[in-house]
Amino acid sequence: MNTHTELSPSAQRIADVAQALVQEVGYNGFSFEHISQAVGMRKASIHHHFGSKVDLGVTVVQRYTGQFEEALRQVQKQFSSAPERLLAYADLFETTFQNNHHLCVCGMLGAESNSLDASLKSEVKRFFQINVAWLNHVMDEGLASGSLRSPHHAKVLAETLLSLLEGAMLVGRSMSAPIGPRHACEVFLSGLIH
Amino acid sequence: MNTHTELSPSAQRIADVAQALVQEVGYNGFSFEHISQAVGMRKASIHHHFGSKVDLGVTVVQRYTGQFEEALRQVQKQFSSAPERLLAYADLFETTFQNNHHLCVCGMLGAESNSLDASLKSEVKRFFQINVAWLNHVMDEGLASGSLRSPHHAKVLAETLLSLLEGAMLVGRSMSAPIGPRHACEVFLSGLIH
DNA sequence: GTCTATACTTGGATAGAC
DNA sequence: GTCTATCCAAGTATAGAC
Which domains does chain B have, with CATH numbers? Predict the structure, then answer.
């Protein structure tokens, strides 16, 4: 599957539905039949656009990662301080979570990771690496400029915040009144700003 | 399923294997066939001990929650300060994660939550409630005694730390050199101790 | 590009012998 | 309590008509 292949309108609808299903019930929780019902096409037609479930999964993650990268660029451009950037970053997750308690695509696939095809697993890893690298950069600037204070390395702070946001969505699913990723981020940040 | 039903030796082995499978590949990622191969019994024999997959799942979570509650009591008894208790708590997750990158049973099921039977979902929720309540108590004492400092309520700190630990395991699965729940907890605590 | 039909496999579950 | 045998449903995938 080429990252830059343009998806036909039908393929896009299928990928949209598949993404939502991954975020709701996980990769192992949905079948072509579910997609079929949601898009109003037969299973065989889904297979015309995506040869296998793995192909579909890979496409979903690649699209998701691409959209996330664009969002990171926007955050970088629109905000100048580390605390502002980190809160805007957390809001990306907050928006996802507010949508029917959807999980991050890669949070879900990360949990299921050990049962996934290697190609999917590798795309999930890539998503996390991109996020940690971006957060690392933001944290590093924040520590250098003094807008953030911590005895820990930027890289460690990056993975900690990412873990917190993914975890807030996961745990929030089972809570009556979850704090959510945005609030969780504020709590973490209040420990980095003195 | 009664919480206090004693499990026969065979039932215990089955539950042990099922728990490990949940932590590795998730509830939707394993079948009776996998268990059958691991315990060396036929599928029909598994069904003799657990009428359905849901029954088995419920038993696994109830056992896991019971063992966790006992661990919480031990931590409470062996440590007296909030920071020490929280680190010991994080080590419960660290130990799980060190074991072949196993996830917390309820972290995994929490992710899959929307595809699970209501009875299972409810057991998962109970696990999280117990953990948040315990952490809330520890945080509250810490804030009162001054061993912890934060502008946030104990309850919020509790859910934040739980989210961080669950998330550290989830994200850690996809990282080459994950920081892990213990280290993540240290990072969070360093923001609560000034 | 979408359909019907179908092949093949796996998964959860039950009946009944031992 | 464990087994063999079997049922039925669901899931992935393919062939071939339209």
Answer: 61-190 (1.10.357.10)
